[in-house]
Specification:
Helices cover 41% and strands 13% of the residues. It has 9 helices and 8 strands. Strands 3-4-7-6 form a 4-stranded mixed sheet. Strands 1-2 form a two-stranded antiparallel sheet. Strand 6 and strand 7 form a beta hairpin.
Length: 337
C-alpha cells in the first residue's frame, strides 16, 4: 500500500514538474496563448526536453600527455585526429635544419658530351659549307649551346637549394610526418615552378629576339648570302631567307617568319644539288629516303632552335656514336669512343 502510494506521488511530481513556471505578471497578453492549460502543457514539454538534454549532454575532457615521442604522437593522432592539440614552443624553423636534398640531373649534363674535348671534336673550320641538314654544319654549335644549357641548369639548381634552405617552416601545432612532408614538398615545388617559369621566359625571349630582329646565323642556316655580278662589272651582295621545299613549287614558311624543323644526316651532295630558288627565297630539298639520319637530332633556322627540338637519342646508342666518329675524325681521339 505504501509502495503504491509512493509510486503515485512520484508520478504526479514528475508529470507536473515545471521549470518554466511563469509568475502571474509574466504572461504576455499578446502571446496568442491565453489558455492556461495550453501554456502549462507547453511549459512541461520544455521542462522534459531540458532534463533529457541536460542528462545526455557531451562533456569534454582534457588529458595532458608528457614526454611525447614520434610513436606516441602518431598513435594519439590516429586515435583522436583533430581533437589532438600539441602546441609548439618554437613556431619557425629553417628547412635546411631538417631537410636534405636528393637532386637528379639529366644524364647528358653529367656526361662527357658537354666537355670541351668532345665539343672540339665536332668542330669543322668550313662548317658553313655543308648543307643545312648535314649534321656537320651545326653539331659543334648545338653541343656548345647544350653545354651552356647544362651550366645554366646547374646554377638554377643551386639557387633553388639556397631558396629552399632559407624558407621558414611555420606551424603552431605539432604535425604528423605526412603533414610535414606535404608542407615541405609544397615549398620545394613552389621554388621549382618559379625557376621553371624564369627559364621558359628566358628561352622565349631569346627565340623572339632572334626571330623578331632577323638575326643571321654565321653558319648560313637561316639566310643564304650570294654575290650578283652586274653588267658594268659590279658586284652586289645580297641574302635570301631559307625555307624547306615541299616540292619544286611549294615551300613552308621561311626563317624569320615561322621557320622549319627537319631531321639531320650526312651527305656528299653539293649545295647546288640541295638548294633551289623559289621566288625571293632559297629552299632546301628534304633528306633523300635512302639517307641514314642522326637519331634524335634536328636542324632548324638556327643551332639554338635545333637543339631545343632535339631529343639526343643518338647519344644513348653505341652504334650511333661510332657512326659519328666516321664523319668527325677528331672524335676517334676522344676516350668515350
Amino acid at each position: 500500500m505504501i509502495l503504491e502510494t509512493l509510486s503515485k506521488w512520484i508520478y504526479e511530481k514528475v508529470s507536473n514538474y515545471n521549470l518554466f513556471m511563469l509568475e502571474e505578471n509574466d504572461y504576455d497578453e499578446d502571446d496568442g496563448l491565453n489558455d492556461p492549460a495550453i501554456v502549462l502543457k507547453h511549459q512541461k514539454y520544455k521542462t522534459r526536453l531540458y532534463i533529457v538534454l541536460f542528462i545526455v549532454k557531451i562533456e569534454s575532457k582534457t588529458v595532458v600527455v608528457y614526454n611525447i615521442t614520434l610513436d606516441i604522437f602518431d598513435g594519439l593522432s590516429f586515435k583522436y585526429g583533430q581533437n589532438l592539440l600539441c602546441p609548439c614552443t618554437t613556431t619557425t624553423i629553417p628547412l635546411e635544419n631538417f631537410v636534405s636534398n636528393d637532386i637528379s640531373i639529366h644524364p647528358v649534363c653529367q656526361s662527357y658530351f658537354i666537355d670541351s674535348e668532345w665539343i672540339d671534336g665536332l668542330y669543322f673550320k668550313n662548317a658553313s659549307s655543308f648543307v643545312n641538314w648535314d649534321f656537320r654544319k651545326t653539331a659543334y654549335s648545338q653541343f656548345k649551346i647544350l653545354s651552356q644549357f647544362c651550366s645554366l641548369a646547374k646554377e638554377t639548381i643551386i639557387q633553388i637549394q639556397q631558396n629552399v634552405n632559407k624558407t621558414q617552416f611555420i606551424t603552431i601545432e605539432l604535425l604528423s610526418k605526412l603533414q610535414v612532408e606535404l608542407e615541405v614538398d609544397a615549398h620545394v615545388q613552389f621554388h621549382k615552378n618559379i625557376a621553371l617559369g624564369q627559364m621558359i621566359s628566358f628561352l622565349n625571349y631569346l627565340k623572339t629576339t632572334i626571330t623578331g630582329n632577323n638575326f643571321v646565323s654565321a653558319l648560313g642556316t637561316n639566310h643564304i648570302f650570294s654575290v650578283e655580278s652586274g653588267m658594268t662589272n659590279t658586284h652586289r651582295a645580297f641574302s635570301q631567307a631559307l625555307t624547306l621545299a615541299i616540292s619544286e613549287l611549294s615551300v613552308v614558311d621561311p626563317c624569320g617568319v615561322y621557320g622549319f624543323t627537319m631531321a639531320t644526316a650526312f651527305t656528299s651532295l653539293s649545295i647546288d644539288e640541295i638548294y633551289i630558288s623559289v621566288g625571293p627565297m632559297i629552299a632546301i630539298r628534304d633528306i633523300p629516303n635512302s639517307t641514314s639520319i642522326v637519331d634524335g637530332f634536328f636542324t632548324s633556322c638556327t643551332p639554338f632552335e635545333s637543339i631545343l627540338e632535339s631529343t639526343l637519342d643518338c647519344l644513348y646508342q653505341t652504334e650511333c656514336l661510332i657512326w659519328l666518329s666516321s664523319y668527325f675524325p677528331k672524335l676517334k681521339q676522344v676516350r668515350i669512343l
